[in-house]
Amino acid sequence: MDVDSSQQRMAAYMRDHQDKVVGRWSEIVVAGLRGRSSVAEVRRELEDLYSLVVRAMSGADEQVAGELTAVLTELSGSRARNGFTPRETALGVFALKDAVFELVADVADLAPEYLAFSRMIDDLGLLTFETYAAAREQIIADQATAMLELSTPVIRLWDGVIAVPLVGALDSARTQLVMEKLLETLVATGADHAVLDITGVSTVDTEVAQHLLKTVSAARLLGAECIVSGIRPQVAQTIVSLGIEFGDIATKATLADALAHVLNRRGQRIGQQRPGQQRTEPQKPGPA
Amino acid sequence: MDRVPILKIGTTLFVSIQIDLQDESVVRLQEDLADELAATGARGVIIDITAVEIVDSFIGRMLAMIGSISRLFDAETVLVGMRPAVAITLTELGLSLRGVRTALNAEKGLELLNGRA
Amino acid sequence: MDELPIRTGDDVVRVRQQVRVVAAKTGLSLVDQTKVVTAASELARNALVHGGGGLARVEVVTSALGKSGVRIGFTDEGPGIADVDLALTDGWSSGVGLGLGLSGARRLVDEFELTSKPGTGTSVVVVKWSR
What we know:
Chain A is α/β, with parallel strands linked by helices and 288 residues long.
């Protein structure tokens, strides 16, 4: 936002007639807000802004741009919180042009300065819009993050085995989160196997396969082997037709198959208890 | 230049990297390990990187090379204690370190080594 | 802004440490800190090994929307890169690409700008934003 320092004459005028102009400005703004605010309330907000604008026009100092941004951001935020639309807030800022025009309309040679002033006010009004948009963006981003967290559980399936049911789209954002949670859980549980279940993954294409491979690669660096389960028939066909290679990563149709596979690798077994028999604990592999 | 100490316990060489190593030190470690393997006939090497916060492509490749060098001496290397953040970063860099075995900690690393016939 | 010379292997370590300090200040997550420090390590080493030495500039930056991030610029007066496209070849699965670690570093950061011409050295500027 450019602060034009060449409007000294107008700045002087505006300073001398501050009371009158701010009063007029407040009236115009209140009229536009259709009774949702009083002149006194609005005037309090605008007094500060007016002084900063005059300072900026006098070419006073370098701080003023920063202060203007801060005050406008605050104004934009407070108006939004009180239920005003960004258009109403911006129009309120633009209304200063009308109030000032009434003041200087008959003064000779102020046209160039007025134009520069007008452009500056346009910038300030647009700034309130940008601040509003940025605040909304942040809310959306925060909600997206919260949703992502909710939909990425990591489950302790068995001694030494964890499972990660993946649901929905597996994009890079989710993959990052999956990797982080998976690895942290590996460290926390000391697991050496992880089952990535993709039953709930809507589309499995080359990109998704890459994400899976990345996750497996990361888990391997922590000494854990991964199995991909939940391969549906159509998904199997897509994978083959796309030429995706899972290499030495074991893949299974169901989570149950994957669990059986892992237990087998670990030398463990879940068996049927026959009546009268002692229940046996799963055997751990040979002496460490 | 800092030299990483190599401990020998039984038939296993232990290396614990505690500090932010500069390239020369990693190269030196590789040389020292090769010397030790030749001199002692050790069957296993455990490299503990629990304290290492950054592994970039150079250090990653050096670790992979240590794995290959050990194999030439018929020894197995296990890299243990990699931090999740490091693993994710290495994966993003495209380094899978396929030639080196890995485990969560030194204890599990030893289990792996002793599991060998 | 911190200016760090890159003349020795120890300097590369110093760059890592300084970037780590600044990244922590900007509120980057642990994984993101690790990524940007690793990228800085790659680029500092490049400047040293391929560029014959150079300079790193580390600073905190703020986006228009108020997010903070860390920006690091690397410059060297080395021979420059003849084929920038080749140097940036994405070698994720094969692990190759002129061995310059550039494509890897690029994946670790949010913004990546490389300027290089044979004879005029290389400049790389990277930015990682907090979320």
